[in-house]
């Protein structure tokens, strides 16, 4: 894997280090400055290949919910992203010993079914042309039917995996936002139109597709903004072919948000007067319910409500 990646960057300056944490975790880094010129760190992970799914995330009805991070950090730069408060560095770390991740998941699923998300701490599909981990996880799922894998993305890079046969225990999940939210808060990400084009192709090829309206952001005219977005989505996508939908309002670890506020004094979004409930920063409870319920009712016009997760 290392050789394949290096072959794509033949002219890059290569610096050998003893351990990725010596660079990635060193103190006094500037996440926002590094984001404008990210470096790629190739590393070997020694342990902790999978984690129990956090309560802040939806488990879609699974009691055995796990996540794994074969890549740390993302090429996109969304204003609301928790990664800028979670990691000290904006540089990207890719763990090339992917087989060790596969082995850890394989052990976990031998005696019970497992629901595994592989793209929470990055956008794995956006990296596919450099590091083909999405394809490799799909091939893993084909061999391990006791594991259901979700690959979540904002990318329009479906073409990089379109040659693969559909696998019934893989869900391709696209995060969708109104175009106004994408333009204001989701820097460097594809347009809504581009994402929908990829979803259309994936549905046409027979993949299970999940739509994720998460996070829902409070905008000045959020009812009109999200209502029009949802109408646009389902004018392009047949509701009957969508596997399911998830909805969630903005939420983030209060500790991560505190760190982000120190470095992003320019962002109105992260300085909203959120409430802290059980260590999680969220909109006030009444507003959060209002936001989620509005999106839920709008989507419920196109999708059976039993297939909508809140």
What does this structure look like?
This protein is α/β, with parallel strands linked by helices and 310 residues long. It has a single domain, classed as pyruvate-formate lyase- activating enzyme. The chain has 11 helices and 16 strands. The protein has helices at residues 2-8, 20-24, 31-35, 83-86, 98-108, 133-143, 179-185, 192-205, 222-236, 254-263, 285-299, and strands at 40-43, 51-52, 65-67, 71-72, 77-78, 92-95, 114-117, 147-153, 170-175, 186-187, 208-216, 244-249, 251-253, 275-277, 280-282, 308-309. The strands form 4 sheets. Strands 2-3-7-8-9-11-12-16 form an 8-stranded mixed β-sheet, covered by helices on one side. It has a 3-stranded mixed β-sheet with strand order 1-6-4, with no helix packed on it. A 3-stranded antiparallel β-sheet has the order 13-15-14. Strand 11, helix 9 (222-236) and strand 12 (244-249) form a beta-alpha-beta unit. Helix 9 packs parallel to helix 11.
General shape: globular
Number of domains: 1
How much of the polypeptide forms β-strand, as a percent range? Answer: 15-25%
Instruction: Trace the largest sheet across and list its strands.
Output: 2-3-7-8-9-11-12-16
Output the CATH class name: Alpha Beta
What is the total tally of β strands?
Answer: 16
